[in-house]
Design goal:
The structure holds two protein chains of two kinds. Chain A is mostly helical. Chain A is about 70% helix and about 5% strand. The longest helix of chain A is centred in the last third of the chain and has 26 residues. Chain B is mainly alpha-helical. The longest helix of chain B is centred in the middle third of the chain and has 32 residues. Helices cover about 75% and strands about 0% of the residues of chain B. Classes of the chains: A mainly alpha, B mainly alpha.
C-alpha cells in the first residue's frame, strides 16, 4: 500500500510495538501479560510492516522464517518441561534460579523458558497466517 | 510417581519439532521419523515393564497434586493401546518412506504424523476428562491437515465431512464435560469416579452418559453416526488411510471403554438400560457396516465399511460388562488395528502395481505376486476370524462371553457378521487376486519384482512385520489374552485406579 502517512507511522511504530510486546511478555509472570499477549502484539508489529511495505520486506525484517520460529518455540516448550526431569521431578515442574547481581537481581526459571516458547509460537503462527493470506 | 510416563507424549513432540526445524531436508526428516518412532516404542516397552510388575503408574504433571493438576495414568489397558500405537508408528514410518510424495513432505507430513501420534498417546494416558478433550483436538487438527494435504477434489470433499462431524462431536463432548463439572466440581477422572455415585440427580448423570456415548460414538464411527468414515477414509494416501483406519477410530472405542467402566457404571447412573443401549448400538454397527461393505466395489471403501462393522464387536464386548466381554473387546481392538491397517497397506501395494483401487479393473495379483497374495490372505482371514490367526481368539472370547451371560441373539449376529466379512474378503480375493489380468494394466505389472529394483520392498517390510505379528498373536495367544484379562479386571474394579491416582482413601 502506498501511503506516506502509513509508511512514516509504521517506521516509527514498529520499534515501539516490538518493545511493548517484550514489556508485556516480561511483565507476564506476576502481573497481566505473558507470552501469548506479548506474541500477539509482536506479530502485530510485523503484520503492520507487511501491510505498509509488502510481505517480502516484512520477511526480511523478521530475518527468521516464521515456521522456524514455531519450531524453536515448540522446542523450548518441551525443553522447559524436560528440565525438572533431570532432577527427578515430574514433567513441567517449575524450577527457579535466582542470581544476585547486587544492583538488580535476576530470576531465571523454566516457566520463563516456557513463556518464551509460547511467545515464539504465537508470533510464528500469526505471521505465517497473515503472510499466506497477503500473498494469495 | 513415574516420571517416564510423559515420554510417549514428549518423544513425538520432540520429533515433530526437529522435523519442523529441518523441514528443508527430506533425508533428515525421514531419519527423525524412524528414530522417533523407534524411541517411542522403546519408552513404551520400559513403561510396560513397570506397569506389569508394579501395577498402575501415575504421574502428577508439574507436581500439582490430583485432583487439581493434570494426572497421567497408565494401567494395563493404556499400556496395551500405547504399545499398539507405537508399533503402528514404526510401520507407518517405514511405509511412508516410499508412499509419501515430495510435495506432501514439503508441506509438513512428518511433523503432522508425529503430532497425530502424540495426540493419540495423550488420549490414552490422560487421567483428566478435560485434558482428554484437548488431546482429541490435537488429534483432530493433525488428522484434518493430513487428510486434506494434496488438495485433490475428493480429498477436500472427504476432509470437510470429516472435520465438521468431528467438530460437532467435540462440541457434544465439551457439553458433557461441562455437565460433569457442574455436578461434581472436578474433572479428574478418578475423583469423578468417587463423586459421581454421590450425585442425587441420577437422571442428569444418565443424560451426561448419553452425551458422552454420542460424542465418542461419532469418533468411533458406530451406528447410526458412522457415515462420515467411509466418505473420507479412502481419499488420502495409503499410509494415512492405514493409520486412520487402524488407530484413530479405536481412540473413540478406548474412550468409550474408559468412560463406561470408570465413570458411568450402574453405581453412578442407576440405569439398567445403559448397557442395553450399547448392546443394540454394537449389534446394528456390526450388521450395517458389513452390509455396506458387501455393496461396494472399491478396495479401500470396502475396508472402510469393515472398520465400522468391526467397531460393533468392540462395543458389544463393552456392553456385556463382564471381565470376559471387556477382555474380548480389548483383544479385538488390538487384533483389529493390526489386521485392518495391514489390509490398507496391501491395498496400497496392489494399487501401485495395478494403478487402481477399483476391484473391477484389478486382477492377476495371485499369478504374478503370489507372496503378496499370501500376506493378503493372512490379514483377511485374521479379520474374518479364521483359526489359528489373531481374529479367531478375539471372536472366540467375545462369543464365549456372550454365551456365558446368555445373550444368544447378539452372539448369533456376531457369528453371522463374521461370515459376511469373509464374503467381502472373498470378493476382493476373487477379483483382485484371482481375476484375469485386465487389459489396461500399467506396463510394469508383472515385471517389477516385490524385492529388488523399484524399491517396493520398502512397502513390503511393514506388511510382513504386521503379518508376522498376526501369526504370532494367533499361534501364541495366551500371554496377550492374559494381559487383556488383567486390563479388564483393572477396569472392572475402579477402586485400584482411584487409589493409584488419589492415594489411599
Amino acid at each position: 500500500m502506498k501511503s506516506l502517512i502509513l509508511h512514516t507511522a509504521t517506521r516509527l511504530m514498529i520499534g515501539v510495538l516490538v518493545l511493548f510486546s517484550l514489556f508485556l511478555f516480561f511483565r507476564g509472570h506476576d502481573e497481566p501479560g505473558g507470552g501469548f499477549i506479548g506474541g500477539l502484539v509482536g506479530a502485530g508489529a510485523f503484520t503492520l510492516y507487511a501491510i505498509a511495505f509488502g510481505t517480502e520486506a516484512s520477511r526480511k525484517v523478521l530475518r527468521v522464517h516464521p515456521i522456524t520460529l514455531i519450531a524453536i518455540g515448540l522446542l523450548s516448550l518441551v525443553v522447559s518441561g524436560l528440565i525438572p526431569m533431570f532432577v527427578a521431578e515430574p514433567f513441567l515442574t517449575g524450577k527457579w534460579l535466582f542470581i544476585e547481581w547486587g544492583a538488580f537481581d535476576t530470576k531465571l526459571s523454566t516457566p520463563l523458558l516456557f513463556d518464551i516458547g509460547v511467545y515464539l509460537c504465537v508470533v510464528g503462527f500469526i505471521v505465517t497466517v497473515i503472510f499466506s493470506l497477503e500473498e494469495e | 510417581m513415574n516420571g517416564m510416563l510423559v515420554l510417549p507424549v514428549a518423544i513425538p513432540l520432540i520429533t515433530a519439532t526437529l522435523a519442523l526445524l529441518f523441514r528443508k531436508s527430506s533425508v533428515l526428516q525421514r531419519w527423525f521419523g524412524i528414530l522417533g518412532m523407534a524411541a517411542l516404542l522403546g519408552s513404551v516397552m520400559i513403561l510396560f515393564r513397570d506397569v506389569y510388575t508394579d501395577g498402575i503408574q501415575v504421574l502428577q504433571l508439574g507436581t500439582w497434586a490430583a485432583p487439581f493438576g493434570i494426572t497421567l495414568v497408565a494401567d494395563m489397558l493404556t499400556m496395551l493401546m500405547l504399545g499398539i500405537s507405537a508399533i503402528m508408528g514404526v510401520v507407518i514410518g517405514i511405509y511412508s518412506l516410499y508412499d509419501i510424495d515430495k510435495e506432501r513432505e514439503r508441506f509438513g507430513y512428518y511433523p503432522l504424523l508425529h503430532i497425530l501420534i502424540m495426540g493419540v498417546n495423550g488420549s490414552f494416558l490422560t487421567g483428566d476428562i478435560f485434558n482428554l478433550y484437548v488431546w482429541f483436538e490435537v488429534m483432530l487438527i493433525a488428522s484434518f491437515i493430513l487428510l486434506a494435504l494434496g488438495n485433490s477434489k475428493n480429498q477436500l470433499q472427504g476432509a470437510l465431512k470429516y472435520v465438521f462431524i468431528n467438530l460437532f462431536s467435540s462440541l457434544i463432548f465439551l457439553f458433557g464435560v461441562a455437565m460433569l463439572y457442574g455436578m461434581t466440581g472436578t474433572l479428574n477422572m478418578a475423583d469423578l469416579a468417587v463423586r459421581l455415585p454421590m450425585v442425587e440427580n441420577t437422571g442428569l448423570v444418565t443424560t451426561t452418559a448419553m452425551l458422552f456415548m454420542v460424542s465418542f460414538g461419532i469418533k468411533a464411527a458406530v451406528f447410526p453416526l458412522f457415515f462420515w468414515l467411509p466418505a473420507s477414509y479412502h481419499t488420502p494416501p495409503v499410509a494415512i488411510s492405514a493409520i486412520f483406519g487402524g488407530l484413530l477410530t479405536k481412540v473413540g472405542v478406548y474412550a468409550l471403554i474408559r468412560v463406561f467402566t470408570l465413570l458411568f457404571t450402574q453405581d453412578s447412573t442407576h440405569n439398567e438400560y445403559l448397557h442395553t443401549i450399547l448392546l443394540w448400538v454394537g449389534g446394528f454397527t456390526m450388521v450395517i457396516g458389513v452390509l455396506g461393505a458387501a455393496s461396494h466395489m472399491e478396495f479401500r471403501k470396502i475396508l472402510s465399511f469393515h472398520i465400522v462393522s468391526q467397531i460393533g464387536y468392540m462395543i458389544m464386548g463393552l456392553a456385556f460388562n463382564t471381565a470376559m466381554g471387556i477382555m474380548g473387546a480389548i483383544f479385538y481392538v488390538l487384533h483389529n488395528i493390526l489386521a485392518k491397517s495391514n489390509l490398507f497397506l496391501i491395498s496400497g501395494i496392489a494399487q501401485r502395481l495395478l494403478g487402481t483401487f477399483e476391484l473391477k479393473k484389478m486382477g492377476g495379483l495371485y499369478k504374478h505376486y503370489p507372496f503378496l497374495a499370501v500376506l493378503f490372505l493372512i490379514s483377511a482371514f485374521a479379520l474374518a476370524g479364521f483359526p489359528p490367526l489373531s481374529g479367531f481368539w478375539a471372536k472366540l472370547s467375545l462369543v464365549k462371553a456372550g454365551l456365558s451371560i446368555e445373550q444368544y441373539v447378539i452372539t448369533g449376529v456376531a457369528i453371522l457378521v463374521g461370515l459376511l466379512t469373509l464374503f467381502s474378503m472373498t470378493k476382493i480375493w476373487l477379483s483382485a487376486f484371482w481375476g484375469t489380468v485386465p487389459e489396461e494394466t500399467p506396463e510394469h505389472f508383472g515385471k517389477i519384482p516385490l524385492f529388488g529394483a523399484g524399491k517396493l520392498y520398502i512397502l513390503m517390510i511393514p506388511v510382513m512385520i504386521i503379518a508376522g505379528l498376526i501369526i504370532a498373536v494367533g499361534l501364541y495367544a495366551q500371554p496377550l489374552l492374559e494381559l487383556c484379562m488383567t486390563a479388564a479386571e483393572q477396569l472392572l474394579d475402579p477402586s485400584v485406579y482411584i487409589e493409584a491416582v488419589l492415594g489411599p482413601q
